[in-house]
């Protein structure tokens, strides 16, 4: 490990990118705890300063995948890769959109952990806990059972990837983004051919799109979404890269062009408010900004997975599923299954 560290930590002008093979070796050393905490921290900080190369990112993704549990619960599904450091100032529309998509015949894989740096925001796992579903107390099998019933899989990354979880103390102490903030979102727990991936800075569009192509996804959207998430804005246009078939193209998705542009209220977001808002939308109601945002995000995902010929067609399908109660029923099937598992686990103690 010390030799790899010397390459990436030579300073601003002397630092060198690692080859794929050397980066994979470094990732293995970190994940297997062969690297000391000091070496690991120094390596992650040096990579952050140097900026990770495409081969380094690819190697770290493959190393993380090697040591994770990955389940092909569905023949085809969409992986929604949002930030593990959570959200502070925006609605997590991916959560209700997942149940709309499942009701439309497109299974979805969601994943996350308790909050991580640098944002320390509200995560999907926090929202689940607000619903009485404590992912840290339930086995992966409980979520697989709920997924087979509802078409929505949630993977608690700490349980599905314990080697990654063991790095939490170092990551918390560093309190900054590291190469794992990208790699952990691409572990692909559900072996998905379709992907939405959130970024914050437009400077990484090209690198991430090339990474996604190398990882072999059929179709993917890299989205410069809310707080670096894969959620499209509803009050302004969102820049995206569409990647697939070995190519990528930049585009803009503008809600105003579809009659969906809606002012978004400023709210103090908590896990309970995120859950309340999501459940209101899934019942066909709630604030129009969040209803429309869920609608748009679901419609775009239907299109990239080939379940709708256009975003407009996707909007028509998704609106029907929200207003008819189908999405709400799918959500209740998922939630009911997990609450029943939680009750059984509690009763067996």
UniProtKB/TrEMBL annotation:
Q: Which UniProt keywords apply?
A: Amino-acid biosynthesis, Aromatic amino acid biosynthesis, Glycosyltransferase, Transferase, Tryptophan biosynthesis
Record Gene3D superfamilies: Nucleoside phosphorylase/phosphoribosyltransferase catalytic domain (3.40.1030.10), Transferase, Pyrimidine Nucleoside Phosphorylase, Chain C (1.20.970.10)
Give a GO molecular function annotation for the protein.
glycosyltransferase activity
**Database matches in InterPro entries:** Anthranilate_Pribosyl_Tfrase, Glycosyl_Trfase_fam3, Glycosyl_Trfase_fam3_N_dom, Glycosyl_Trfase_fam3_N_dom_sf, Nuc_phospho_transferase
Superkingdom, according to UniProt?
A: Bacteria
Q: Is Transcription regulation given among the entry's keywords? A: no
Q: Which residues form a coiled coil?
A: none
Start and end of every Glycosyl transferase family 3 N-terminal domain? 8-68
Pfam families per UniProt: Glycos_trans_3N, Glycos_transf_3
Give a yes or no for keyword Transferase in this entry. yes
Where the record annotates domain Glycosyl transferase family, the positions are 86-327
Chain ranges passing through the membrane: none
Per its UniProt record, what PANTHER family does this chain match?
A: ANTHRANILATE PHOSPHORIBOSYLTRANSFERASE
**Listed name of the protein:** Anthranilate phosphoribosyltransferase
UniProt organism field:
Paenibacillus physcomitrellae
**Gene name of the encoded protein:** trpD
């Amino acid at each position: 490990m010390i030799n790899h560290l010397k390459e990436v930590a030579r300073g601003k002008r002397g630092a060198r990118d690692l080859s794929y093979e050397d980066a994979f070796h470094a990732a293995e050393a970190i994940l297997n705890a062969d690297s000391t905490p000091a070496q690991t921290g120094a390596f992650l900080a040096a990579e952050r300063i140097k900026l990770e190369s495409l081969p380094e990112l690819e190697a770290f993704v493959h190393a993380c995948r090697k040591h994770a549990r990955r389940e092909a619960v569905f023949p085809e599904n969409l992986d929604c890769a949002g930030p593990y450091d959570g959200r502070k100032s925006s609605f997590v529309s991916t959560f209700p959109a997942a149940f709309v998509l499942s009701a439309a015949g497109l299974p979805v894989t969601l994943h996350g952990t308790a909050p991580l740096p640098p944002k320390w925001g509200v995560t999907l796992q926090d929202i689940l806990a607000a619903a009485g579903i404590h992912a840290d107390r339930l086995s992966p099998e409980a979520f697989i059972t709920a997924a087979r019933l509802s078409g929505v899989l949630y993977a608690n990354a700490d349980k599905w990837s314990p080697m990654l979880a063991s790095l939490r103390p170092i990551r918390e102490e560093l309190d900054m983004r590291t190469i794992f903030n990208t790699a952990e979102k691409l572990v692909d727990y559900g072996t998905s051919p379709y992907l939405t991936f959130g970024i914050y800075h437009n400077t990484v569009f090209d690198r991430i799109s090339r990474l996604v192509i190398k990882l072999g996804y059929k179709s993917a959207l890299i989205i410069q979404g809310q707080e670096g998430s894969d959620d499209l804005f509803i009050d302004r246009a969102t820049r995206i890269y569409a990647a697939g078939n070995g190519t990528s193209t930049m585009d803009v998705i503008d809600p105003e062009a579809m009659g969906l542009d809606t002012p978004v209220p400023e709210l103090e977001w908590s896990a309970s408010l995120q859950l309340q808002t999501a459940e209101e939308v899934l019942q066909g109601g709630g604030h129009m900004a969040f209803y429309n945002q869920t609608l748009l995000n679901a419609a775009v995902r239907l299109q990239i997975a080939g379940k709708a010929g256009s975003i407009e067609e996707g909007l028509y399908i998704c609106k029907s599923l929200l207003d008819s109660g189908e999405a709400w029923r799918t959500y209740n099937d998922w939630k009911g299954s997990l609450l029943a598992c939680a009750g059984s686990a509690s009763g067996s103690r």
